What does this fold into?
Amino acid sequence: MRYSQLRAFDAVARSLSFSRAAEILGVTQPAVSLQVAALERAYRTDLIARHGSRISLTGDGEALFALTRQMFGAEAEIEDFLASSQALRRGHLRFGADAPHIALDLVAAYRAKYPAVTLELVLGNATQTWNAVLQSVVDIAALANPPEDPRLGYLPLATQGMMLLVPRGHEFARRREVSLREIGDRPVIFREHDSNTQRTLEAKLKKMGLALRPVLVLGSREAMVEAVSRKIGLGFIFTREKNDDPRSVAIPLKELKGSSRNMLVYLKPRRRRRAVAALIELAGRPERQSR
It folds into this structure.
């Protein structure tokens, strides 16, 4: 077993892509494939399952990934301790987020203050980002409405409301706010189930005893905006996700004001890393630890 083989496997497991792993490591894709294959041969086990152009981790792969995350997480802490000063003259930070808007504000501020630190932004839906934190795939994440977990530290960032997105000229377009009850049987567009937008909306609809009529389910905000602009249905976005697209209008939803609590979330031991502590300090609000 070689260090380079474990690093190659860990990069593939993090990204679930040989090409992306090669980019992360700064090597060629064949080099990554050879390192992982050599590790599998040496221990006579399958770590990566190939499904055409897609890959996934086997049971042994999942178990090894948990260990390599601990290993390389400790390595990053050691490098931070030995090679960096309070000024953070070097380092690396993997920052996860379930939405780009608040995260990019922090990225811009962090880059301005610590330009020598390499910062990698990893975007995913709410479930993917939550799992990335727990599995140490990322060092810290900006996440909306995260569950309580005693292993984690939390830092409030912002509170947002949900808005109804309608085509310009729609009967709701000039309203100051809209109630979910008013949507009635008008066609709507949902986000994928694991997104914070959809989970928040479904929880409120269930509480109110309402059912909407979805005609389309989409996996991104950008697709939502385009579909609404084409008058396929009405959509749902959070306040910070509003765009300047002249074809659509966003109106606050009466029952979903303040429904999204955006927070920095991280495993408590990660707080010792200077690159992580610097981001927490930069966010600039009193920290809240899970009880």
